């Protein structure tokens, strides 16, 4: 009886191992794989919030564990590009994952605004794993044109 139970346990272990491998493969197909796996070649996309006020757009990018020196921010017309890399944390060489949700390797995020931004006034700060980017809107000043009533 114990031998049968041992075989049953072994089957379940094999099943869960296959399930984890399948989950990794499906996540790879959906573009959610960390780069230290053999599947990942594309940059991962960090989560972000984008909101606006009357004078600026704000982009908050979740980048916990990323060294600010590894982050680049570019302005291309109405587009804001944030890219960089999160380096893998050193860990034991032999490991069996039960859950893999943290992305490592290169990342890339592009945001397109509805209005032009003042590219020379964009500011960014990194605190507690969040990159906050303030993008002031370009102001188009309205000027009243006087009408000449003379000849």
Automatic annotation (TrEMBL):
Gene3D superfamilies for this protein: 2.60.40.790
InterPro entries noted in UniProt: A-crystallin/Hsp20_dom (IPR002068), HSP20-like_chaperone (IPR008978)
Coiled coil spans: none
Pfam families referenced in this protein's UniProt entry, alphabetically: HSP20 (PF00011)
Domain SHSP: 39-150
Protein family per UniProt: Belongs to the small heat shock protein (HSP20) family.
UniProt-recorded name of the protein: Hsp20/alpha crystallin family protein
Species per Swiss-Prot/TrEMBL record: Candidatus Caldatribacterium californiense
Lineage: Bacteria, Pseudomonadati, Atribacterota, Atribacteria, Atribacterales
């Amino acid at each position: 009886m114990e031998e049968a139970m041992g075989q049953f346990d072994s089957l379940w272990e094999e099943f869960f191992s296959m399930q984890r491998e399948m989950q990794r493969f499906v996540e790879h197909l959906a573009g959610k794989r960390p780069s230290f796996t053999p599947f990942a070649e594309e940059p991962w996309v960090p989560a972000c919030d984008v909101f606006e006020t009357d004078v600026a757009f704000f982009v908050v990018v979740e980048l916990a564990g990323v060294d600010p020196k590894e982050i680049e921010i570019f302005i291309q017309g109405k587009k804001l590009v944030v890219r960089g890399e999160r380096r893998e944390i050193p860990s034991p060489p032999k490991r069996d994952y039960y859950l893999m949700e943290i992305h490592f390797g290169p990342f890339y995020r592009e945001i397109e605004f509805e209005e032009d931004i003042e590219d020379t006034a964009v500011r960014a700060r990194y605190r507690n794993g969040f990159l906050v980017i303030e993008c002031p809107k370009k102001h188009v000043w309205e000027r009243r044109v006087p009408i000449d009533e003379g000849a």
